Amino acid sequence: xxxxxxxRRQWVGLLFVAPALLLYGAVILVPAGKTxxxxxxxxxxxxxxxxxxxxxxxxxxxxxxxxxxIIHALFLILFFSFLxxxxxxxxxxxxxxxxxxxxxVWRLLFFLPQVxxxxxxxxxxxxxxxxxxxxxxxxxxxxxxxxxxxxxEASTALPALGVVGAWVQTGLCMMLFIAGAGNIDRxxxxxxxxxxxGPVREFLTVTLPGLRREIGLALTVTVISAxxxxxxxxxxxxxxxxxxxxxxxxxxxxxxxxxxxxxxxxLAVVLSTIVVIAAVLANRVGKTE
Amino acid sequence: xxxxxxxxTAALVVSATLVAALTACAPTAAEPGSTAxxxxxxxxxxxxxxxxxxxxCDRHPVEDLYEGFKVKYPNVTINxxxxxxxxxxxxxxxxxxxxxxxxxxxxxxxxxQTTAPAGAVLDLAPYVELYGWDTKFPTSQLQQLQLSSxxxxxxxxxxxxxxxxxxxxGAFYNKDLMTRAGIAAVPATIADFQASLEQAKAAGxxxxxxxxxxxxxxxxxGALASSLMGAQAAQDWVNGKQGATIAVDGAIQAAQYVxxxxxxxxxxxxxxxxxENDARADFSRGSALYTIDGSWSxxxxxxxxxxxxxxxxxxxxxxxxxxxxxxxxxxxxFAISSKSPHADIAAAFLDYLASPEAAxxxxxxxxxxxxxxxxxAPAPKTFTATGLRDGYNAALAANGIVTFFDHAxxxxxxxxxxxxxxxxxxxxxxxDFIAQLQADWEAYHTS
Lengths: 289, 447
Hints:
- The structure holds 2 protein chains of 2 kinds.
- By secondary structure, chain A is mainly α.
- Chain A has helices at 2-38, 55-62, 64-97, 103-115, 118-128, 134-141, 154-182, 186-194, 199-210, 212-227, 231-236, 248-257, 261-286; strands spanning 41-42, 50-51.
- In chain A, strands 1-2 form a two-stranded antiparallel sheet.
- The radius of gyration of chain A is 24 Å and the shape is flat.
- Chain A starts with a helix and ends with a helix.
- In chain B, the strands form 4 sheets. Chain B has a 5-stranded mixed sheet with strand order 2-1-3-11-6, sandwiched between helices. Chain B has a 3-stranded antiparallel sheet with strand order 8-7-9, with helices on both faces. In chain B, strands 4-5 form a two-stranded antiparallel sheet.
- By secondary structure, chain B is α/β, with parallel strands linked by helices.
- The radius of gyration of chain B is 24 Å and the shape is globular.
- The interface between A and B is large, with 49 and 53 residues.
């Protein structure tokens, strides 16, 4: 009697999750499965497909342009993820220490880049980085004359895109950390102060450990955005100059519009795998125990 | 409860089953209608009311032209479907292979190459004969819209499109700056051209406005290569003709010129960091003596110079005096869906594109008409447009129109753009650049 009740309860439980499971299956699992399937074929999207097995994956790992793109994406993590988390911590530390006048304005200003569409951000920075753009003009006031555009030189293009990413993500990190700092028990600060801690000591011993979960979250979100970056590169450099800024997301797109769905899918699968691994690692930081 | 699987395991099993179920079968698209509805071809346009759907992304020339067509056939309602250009190729593939395709689509090379072998595009050869299009349109323009049965080789096989407007690349120049640099006559040969660059540089005038960020300056290299290789060899390679090669002296020399001119400082600053649009805008504001660009830039130039007197146009200088004029260009054409129930009416619309009325509309908005017969095409009204027409006609007469080089394979645009950026920055040797192009070509055409 009790046994059958328990079994029924199991089925009822499944019934409860069924709508969510079906939806998740339809929009996530089915497309994922289809992508994996497509990665094993050579197909232009219309005509008869030819079986390729794992050959598309072999190409993915042996192609120099592709390996370069993965290295570029990893490099972008420095700018999209590590730098914003650092800056976000500093800003949050400054802004939460005491009540500043016009706090809302500061928050808004730093968060604004996060609200703007990345395509608009990209076009704006492209103009700023142009040979006669505002950045070179400002440098000119200090006697530094630069005739080259920042996105036009192989040595500066990728870091220049990285700076844009840092500019966008810092606001997000700051907001997360300010919100997180609000949850830290005030008495911890008082205790630290009674023990004679200065602002830096206070930040390191109370704020930083208290923000562990938020830091983990910020790292996860920003690492994913670095690895999956596409729109910013697409509207600024298109992967150039001379492959200096190609990222995997861009190559997926380029293969797709060139009618090479198999390679695009194989690349997408590899990229997704890297993203999942990176996200799991980043998430570890946030685990409190 | 040992028999009860943990929720995590259950989720994994469900996901794995779903994924596995999907990885076993071959991908297929919706079957396009292999049996064309137009079993009979006719030039008669029925008088019942019909709606003709046209999908396009270049605003020219459809919007201006369909009004004119409506005057001729009042029973035909045209339903223009404007679509975003950036994704148009993919859209055309999906629409032509879908259940309810538009009657007419703007001819996008890549999309037609994919869908025509599947039977989704109507072969217009019978209409060519019925309407006499082979006499109304230049042969080279019709050939650009022909494809082999596997869709990979241009210039042979079935006629999948009809020209709707022509584009042509050449050298735009700034008259004032030419005077300031003391250049007496527009250059006729590449040697003259190079001398004029040097003269401009010495006079403190930027010789060439070049934006290579989004396409590597394909038009500059392509113009040089067309002249140095000769139009026929270049066209064979772009068409994908068996045995064709780009690994020839002319093409390497063209890349060498690009490298040398970059070194000599003949380009506007940091070409790899400036988009083609921005370079064009800079040129229209008088920043440089030349820009190598196509007829589509007329609208930008007209905005800066409404009278059309400031900028001249020449077909790109030839290799040696006496050589025939060359230039890259492609026709903005139209194709008919094989599923269209109104193929005859659609064909009548395409025929209208070659009419004097259509030519007048095209010329009035500063574009090149497809039908260049002086009896049909009215004279251009400005200095710039006259130069464009003359340059285009000279190349046409010399059989010198070369399809854009990046049509040679689906990946060629990227290979060329990135490679040329390497040539401009000095990171890639001209001969290595050409070897990369040939490798890309061979991967597509000999697989």
